[in-house]
Amino acid sequence: MKGKRDGYISWDEYFMGVAKLSGMRSKDPHSQVGACIVSQDNKILSMGYNGFPMGCSDDEFPWAREGDELDTKYFYVTHSELNAILNYRGGSLEGAKLYVSLFPCNECAKAIIQAGIKTIVYECDKYADSPAVKASKRMLDAAGVRYYQYTHTGRKLELEV
Ligand SMILES: Nc1nc(=O)n([C@H]2C[C@H](O)[C@@H](COP(=O)(O)O)O2)cc1CO
Ligand SMILES: [Zn+2]
Q1: Is 50 in the pocket of ligand 1 (CB under 6 A)?
Q2: Backbone Cα Rg of the chain
Q3: pLDDT tens digits, residue range 103-112?
Q4: For ligand 1, what atom is nearest to the CA of residue 108?
C-alpha cells in the first residue's frame, strides 16, 4: 500500500524556516532577524522582522551602527520579536512559542513575558556576552519562559520565487 511521502519538513524546520524567510525582508545591512509566533497546536499566529516603525523611511532613517547615537539605527529599529508580537491582531498569545533567528534582547524579553509567550526557540546567540542578553535571560528565567537553541538538521531549503 502506498503511504505518505518521505522528506517533508518537520515542524521545527517549518517554523524556523518561516522565521528566517521573514528576516529576509529586513533592510538592516548588518543583522537580518526574523521571528515567527506559533500556537500550542502548531498554527502560525504572527511573523516579524527588524525594521523601522511605519512612517519612518528605510531610506531616510540611519542604518549605521556607530557614530553619533542619534544617527545610528539603535534608537529607531523595532526588533523582529516585538514586531511579531505587535503584528498579531487576533487576541491572546498566552502559551505561544516564539521561533527567532537571534536571541531576544532585554526589551523584547519584557514584551515576550508580558504577552504570555512561554517558549523561545532561537537559532543564534551571537550577543550572549552583552548586558542586554544577560538581563534578558535573567528575566526569562525568573518568569519561567523556557528557551532552547534550534538544532540544525542540515537540510537546505530552496525556493524558486
Ligand atoms: N534579538 C534581536 N532581534 C532583532 O531584531 N535585532 C535587530 C536590531 C538591529 O536591527 C539588528 C542588530 O544589529 P547589529 O548590532 O547586529 O548590527 O537586529 C537585534 C536583536 C539582538 O538582541
Ligand atoms: Zn529585542
Answers
A1: yes
A2: 17
A3: 999 999 999 9
A4: 1
